[in-house]
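Ticket #4471: structure output looks truncated?

Reporter: J.K.
Steps to reproduce: submitted the chain below (394 residues) through the standard prediction queue, then opened the result file.
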Amino acid sequence: MNTIKLLVITRENEADKSYGLGKTLLPFMQGLQARGHQVVYFSKTASKPTHQRWLPCFISGLRPFFGFTAPALAERLIQGIAGGRHASRIAATHVWLHDPWMALGYKWGLWSRGCFKKTAKVFISEHGLGSFTWAVSRDGLTFSPRMFRFLLALERRALAKADKVFVPSKTALDALSRDLAWVQPPKSCVVLSYGRPEAAFDQPIFEAELDYSLFGFATRPQVPVVLAVGRISPAKNYPLLVDMVHLLDQQFPLGVQLLIAGGGDAQPLLDYAAAKPLKHPLRTAFVADMNQAYALAQVYVSGCAIESFGQANREALAFGLPCIVPSAGGSGEVLSCGAWLVPANAQALATAVSSVLSSPTQALFWKQQAALEYEKLPTWTEILEFFEQQLLDD
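Returned output as attached by the reporter:
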């Protein structure tokens, strides 16, 4: 069997391995290594000195042309350049870029090493619900219409030159085609899903194993815990969940405890929650062992209506939690009948959460739905076989 040397280039850091993209990459890398391939993980952490040295210079150079977008673009260009240099250094046969903007810097990095001919197959992943340019605009970056069109054109060009473009769901591919004005997506575009998370049905975390201090609790909360998972960012729409809890405080006798397990700057969100105020103050925490968070919850909820996939949603299925998520985006495709899909507004979410918490029958129904849907999910073995085939495909 042909073996490859795959370089995985991402702007994630080590902490991101606990959830999100960083966590979903691990099974891919470990699975390929088990099949005899070499895999090198090149994160932002690996290139930290390069970022520290060059980021201010790149931002200064790009700001006159890209304005407020300059820092985000500079970060990705630098990571792409560092990745290209590393690809040349280790003689990678395949390169997997987890950001199309990094592709702009990747070739620059190769050229700086004297590599002017194609030395490796290049794969690009689009992780958002549509184009990367649109996705970052949902996450707080602002563009003029002219700049938006320009960045879309750069993205379209980068994808056209890639050997393969991976998207996590058919819904995401349809949105990408819309954004980039493709009548039909190129044959190089492939839906690459994720395997089902490890099930927790047969290996539950017992009460004695729970560490409440991770979330700032002295003991188990006396009210139901509603859990959300993921980095704290505009795209996750966590203020919607705060509004939901505010409604539940008025409708549900005991109130609920909202817990957000994810990293990021939580202070603006905490300030937003404090202004309500809530019966039980919002808790946020980054934890390396996400199983602790799932085991503490009675209900899992998401406020993100633009998920292209949402692996955290599937992890909640694996724990048999009643899952309540917005019906928009790729959630319906990814979760199917395993979750309660509702409109992305506070009242709809609050009504569903209240129904589950008030009715043992409802709670049991959605736990059973989660378990049934979990069994239908593709295994990582199936996903890895498909992925390996895509890498080796000539």
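Triage note (M.O.): checked the attachment and the full token line is present. Residues 5-195+379-392 form a domain with the Rossmann fold fold (CATH 3.40.50.2000).
Status: closed, working as intended.
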